[in-house]
């Protein structure tokens, strides 16, 4: 099903009152014009049916190498991040190229069916054979017609704390990883964590790569690697290319410290990713009652003018047993967990799974504008509120003018 279309008619764009016709030619949006009223679609025209049309969803943070391995070789019983890392370390021992490719592609197919066309995946590079990384570099090419895939070289067991951690990271960059990762809160000591952050940002800068660090994914209020990451981003004027993922500890920082921290965050302009379903599940595990939510300060970061997006993080893996590829589910949970169900936030909420994710991925050509690649999704709903109420799958997904997904209205699959 790869029909090429000339126009999307009866399209509703966010913040625009009248229905729009969006013309496409040679895979790009060529003209966006206001309709007098609803029109009948002609041949080679797709009917938006007065629904919202938005840029494709962005999944900015997923671990595709571990996707669909929940329960292998054993289930994470405690529900902690740390037992997840142990289970994964055991599963990692039996990774093969075909195993990684097949699970990653199965997951990406699910994502594409849900209107996701941009994905950033972490791949564990604390493996002397780099099996996952090499397989994922192949996947990046194999799926290029369906999704743009960015690969983060992610040192799951540490850069300083895993044997050859730094050499493996350098090799991953040489092989073609797009993004340099890190995990300072998991290094053996605070000093190792600080050194690792400084080192990895330098490495990325030197090789013209992006940065995405698992940063302070812990409820410990004394985990303060974010300030190191932000200071490095500022020093190198690299903020738009640096992402802080998780920053769960910020949910536990005191307000005095945060007021100082936010000054630096605003200056550095780095990007934030929060994974609400994952953090609600993994964090708060060492609390009695009251139990913390384990999420970063999403509305405060947004109010400070910083870009924050939501990601799924996991799909049926050692850290999280659920997940269905529908980012509207993630958005729904995130808005609940962050006290963002006020109508003002709901009306802006789709940014958390579109534009802000695109900012984290540092995408150059993203959005519905004349001249940009003709990529968008038709949602089921005329407003963000209706879309959230239904959480129904996208009606259509268009990639470079081709219809890659098209399903009847009100359908759940
Ligand atoms: N690894 C990690 O360190 N943190 C996570 N949330 C996942 C993998 C899913
Ligand atoms: Fe993660």
Helix-strand sequence: EEEEEEHHEHEHEHEHEHEHHEHHHEHEE
Mean pLDDT: 97
In CATH, the topology of the largest domain is named TIM Barrel
Number of strands: 16
- Total helical elements: 13
Shape: globular
The percent of residues in helical segments reads 25-40%
In short:
The chain has 13 helices and 16 strands. The chain has 413 residues and is of the alpha/beta class. The site of 5-methylcytosine has 10 residues, from loops.
SSE topology:
Blueprint (H helix, E strand, L loop, with lengths): L6 E5 L8 E6 L2 E7 L10 E3 L5 E2 L2 E6 L18 H12 L4 H17 L2 E9 L6 H12 L5 E7 L10 H11 L3 E4 L7 H17 L3 E6 L9 H11 L6 E5 L8 H14 L2 E4 L1 H7 L15 H6 L4 E3 L16 H11 L5 H6 L6 H6 L15 E3 L5 H7 L5 E4 L2 E5 L7
Helix pairs in contact: 2-3, 5-6, 6-7
5-methylcytosine binds next to loops.
Report on the structure:
The protein is α/β, with parallel strands linked by helices and 413 residues long. It has 2 domains: 3-55 and 367-406, Urease, subunit C, domain 1, CATH 2.30.40; 57-360, Alpha-Beta Barrel (TIM Barrel). The protein contains 13 helices and 16 strands. An 8-stranded parallel β-sheet has the order 6-7-8-9-10-11-12-13. Strand 15 (396-399) and strand 16 form a beta hairpin. The longest helix is centred in the first third of the chain and has 17 residues, at 97-113. The chain is globular, with a radius of gyration of 21 Å. The chain starts with 6 loop residues before the first strand and ends in a 7-residue tail after the last strand.
